[in-house]
Structure formats: C-alpha cells, structure tokens
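Mods, move this if it's the wrong board.
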Amino acid sequence: MATSRNVIVAGAGIGGLSAALMLARAGFRVTLLDQAKELAETGAGIQLSPNATHILIALGLGERLRADAFVPEAVAIKTASGGRLTRIPLGGEAERRYGAPYWAIHRADLQAALLDAVRASPDIVLRLGTRFEDFVLHSNGLSVACRQGATPADEHGIALIGADGLWSELRSRLGYPAPEFRKRTAWRALVPAEAVDQEFRAPDVQLWLGRSAHVVHYPVRGGALINVVAIVNDRWAEPGWTADGAREELLAHYSPWNWAEPVREFLAVPEHWQKWALYDLAPLPSWGEGPVTLLGDAAHPMLPFLAQGAATAIEDAAILADSMALTPDDPSAAIRRYERARRKRTARVQRAAASNGRVYHLAAGEAWARNLFLRLGGGKMLLRRYNWLYDWRAPPPLSAARPGARPQAGDE
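Not the wrong board. Structure tokens:
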C-alpha cells in the first residue's frame, strides 16, 4: 500500500487500537504510536453496551470476545440500606432489542483481542516506546515529531489522529483546555467470586445508591472474578491522577449509619485497591484542524456513570474510518465530516453521564423522589430511556456500499 495513504494514530488504547483496525480495513496504512514500551492494561472490568459490541463483532472479534465476556442478566439497582428499587433487563432482552449483546469483560481481555488483531494486520505498524511530541502540516500531508526513548524520530502521513487519552498531548498542542477534576474518586478492585457472598456474585450489574457515594459490581472472566467500583465524593491530594488506596480510607466513606453491613463487608474483601481522580471536560466546539483530529477520551473525556467511555471511542473509530474511506484523497474534508457526525452525540453522552453522577449521590427528599421514580417506572421503561444510546448503529462498511451511495454517519 502506498505510503501516501498512511494515517498516524497517537495512542494505542482501546480507541487507538480500534481506529487502527478500522482504518486498515477501509484501505489505509496505519502507523500506531504509543509511549508505553509494553501495552499492559491495569486489571479492571469494563461494560460494553450493544452500540459498541455490534462494531467489535463486525470487526471479526465476536468469537474471541465471547469466550472472555460475561453477559449480565440485568442492572439491579438498590439503596445503600439494601432496599431493592428496580431491575433493568439486559441479557437476551437487550440483544433482541438492539441486535447485539451487552457484555461485561476484563479490560485486559478486550485490549488483548484488539492488539492481536492489530499485530496480525499487514497494514498496521505498531511503534511502542514512541512518544508523540508535535506535528507540522505541509502541502503533501503532515510530519509528526516523536521520540523513541531519548532518540528523536519522525513519521509522515496524510492524517493524524489523537487517541492519546484523558491527558492528550495532541489536545494540548491544539490549544484546547485540560480536563477538570469533578471532586469524585473511583476505587477499583477485582476479587475472586468465591470470596464474596452469593448476593454479590449474582449474574447482574449491581448498582447501590447512597448519599455522596455509590457502588457498582459485576462478574468478569466468565464469572470467576467480580469487578468492584466504589465512587465517592472526595478531594484529591495525591500526585498524578491515580494511586494505591488503603481499604480503611475507602470504608470511611461507607459508614454503618448509612450503608448496610453486607455492603461494607463486601467492600472489606479486596486487600488491594487502586483509586482514580475523576475528570471530564465540557464539550469542545471543534476537535482539530486540517487533517488532524481527536478521538475517544482525547476528544470527549466523560465521567464513568454511563459506562460509555470505551464504547464512544469505538463508535468514533467506526465513523472516522468510514468517513476517511468516503473521500480518501481529501483527509481534511473526511475529518471534518467525522467531527460533525460525532460531536452532538458524544456531547449528549457526556451530559447524561454527569447527570447520572448527580442523581446517584442524592440525599434526603431528593433521594426519596428518585427511588420512587425508579420503583414506579420499572426496568423495561428505564431501558427504553436508553434506546437513543444502545440502539445506535455505525454505517455499513463503505467497501460494501454502491458507488455514489452516501452513508449515514451517526448523528450528522
């Protein structure tokens, strides 16, 4: 394939790996850069809703991922004291409604499947230990300055995609603001299923709502492990944005006066916790210039209260690749089309995630009203409220479209 059709992707996380695969399938050569010397994902679970899984299945990863994924039967919502509010059906109901499964999976399993596919592609060059630093536009495309260890290097291509995450170097280089801390921390741990009581290894995504805190947990690795996420209103005094966390510090946020003892006992099971400061960013008015753009957390960092960070990055990758294939000789036009197709939807997801974060942590009368709404509404009504999110579909591969046919690109 001609070097002139080379697209440079900075960042080999879930979004960057997905973008590389889809761009290669669309007929481009891809140079994928990541500053890590080895792609080793931290141990944590991730939820993949149907808007993402149908894309991964179309990429040919369905059989590989099904072997590692867990299919939750429902989202079971409860109060901090143990009261049952509602069950939102997933499992077979979600797959029938949306045409693709809802999966809970270990993040490392998803990354490994994407990475193996990238390494198997003859049109993708993966350069690890390579840090993006800057870019320069010129008449024939662009040049990207990077660094391999202490050695300066450069790459050339027709487009540059910044999939370099929350603290994106490319977003900073483009002059966009940095994300803002939202006064919450997320504590994450994995525990063997046999180490917890039966209630906490039920085949559901379980969501416990309390004042200024909530807990989410669900099985991964075929039910062998339970992924636990405890999110609290908090300050952050650690260097960086992630750190080891002490169990006693976490439990102080879940007092016996507000939280049922079985929940506290469940949170006391993990010996090792990792905590993250939670950041997001108001929707940006644009994502790039010329043949340069952002993707995933670099473009639209969001809070985790809708479980859509990875899913929207995978959506971005699908729309970007299809848009690039539509006008391969005009990458700037293709990238603006991609941005127009994605900004409205991702802004809506960002707002919905932030709203959920507020609703989850309500207290007193507001919490009572929320609980009444959940009880009266019922799970199927609540699932319908997310049709706009889960029923989204990427356009079909452009290679299969009739000549001259115009694809439907998301929310454009």
